[in-house]
Amino acid sequence: MASIARSASQSIRAASRRAPSALAKAAVKPAQTASYSLLARAAAAKAAQRAPVQGARGVKTLDFAGTKETVYERSDWPLAKLQDYFKNDTLALIGYGSQGHGQGLNARDNGLNVIIGVRKDGESWKQAMEDGWVPGETLFPIEEAINKGTIIMNLLSDAAQSQTWPTIAPLITKGKTLYFSHGFSVVFKDDTHVIPPKDVDVILVAPKGSGRTVRTLFKEGRGINSSIAVWQDVTGKAKEKATALAVAVGSGYMYETTFEKEVYSDLYGERGVLMGGIQGMFLAQYQVLRKNGHTPSEAFNETVEEATQSLYPLIGAKGMDYMYNACSTTARRGALDWAPIFEKANLPIFEQLYESVKNGTETRKSLEFNGRSTYREDLNRELEVINNQEIWRAGKVVRSLRPDYKPESE
Ligand SMILES: NC(=O)c1ccc[n+]([C@@H]2O[C@H](COP(=O)([O-])OP(=O)(O)OC[C@H]3O[C@@H](n4cnc5c(N)ncnc54)[C@H](OP(=O)(O)O)[C@@H]3O)[C@@H](O)[C@H]2O)c1
User: pTM value?
Assistant: First the structure.
């Protein structure tokens, strides 16, 4: 879900500025110090112990509900092997949004040689400095970072990848590797005009979560699931490199896909159930409750609070039937009856959405909107409208009553 928490990237960094963890503090030291390695190794060892591995360590072919798929795992890349593999490389992360922050700090904590390239003195430049990247040492203007890097990790916004491509392309010279976290730019090349040079490996590592989660799971010693893919394999090592880089930036398990499949599923999912769809469902349910005389707190509790605090975590833990079984027989009967009605009503919308992704409509909208010089202000204005909706204002009060509540302005 490429765009999830993009909007949250500032608050993520604000949070990490407020309460830097021991790891984050350690990360401001130069790379390769013992502290990164020890922490990361301890985390990797802990995660390896926990991994539900069938058989020997390594690549696995697993049966996903009748379809066999290959999954790669972090335990194939112990820290020493990872550091050795990239010992002659400089990872140049271009862009410091949600993903740049999470992936960059993780790779740095893993002891790799990482530099950041962003617009000088822009918002990201300041944020990178606050995270301990040092101008002239590990923080550079975009073109300078690309010149210094051997692995160019293009983590600019998708719109910016297209806008900057004419400047960036000539700098991606033979021998470098071009890395993306989304299939967007190369798959929709007719709109983005991003056509990689023929003589470089082009790979993808797309964490299935926000940059915030990429970072927090890494710090907890777990790893995020990521998709990996190869667009162009010049060296014959592209897939291996993608797998190793996925581990370097904090992935636990890597699922192989193609650039096309990744971008279609990702644009579709974030517009659907992950973000847009769920927002629409919450709001529709809330509005009907309010229209029928329910108070804001009752409508919020019955729509959002119970979902996020009680029932969705149960689905996440053990699946839909598990959640059903944890609920009353009254709830079970009603939900079983209404689920197919919602499915039928939603199916045409999802069909329409997938088509809109596949035919490039979603891409073109994103390029136009996020390519504006005022993209941050324009997005914030719309998010402020959500923030001011009664449902979310009621939610703030409900959350303030939680026993573990901490003021949200902090
Ligand atoms: N966020 C996610 O959850 C997620 C998950 C998986 C994959 N991805 C993919 O990861 C990549 C990065 O996404 P993101 O969410 O981390 O970043 P983002 O918020 O979409 O982009 C932020 C970065 O783009 C830079 N930027 C924007 N316009 C620019 C321009 N015209 N010229 C130069 N720089 C510009 C910003 O720099 P300034 O501060 O200077 O404007 C900032 O560093 C994308 O391909 C995305 O699809 C994201």
Answer: 0.85
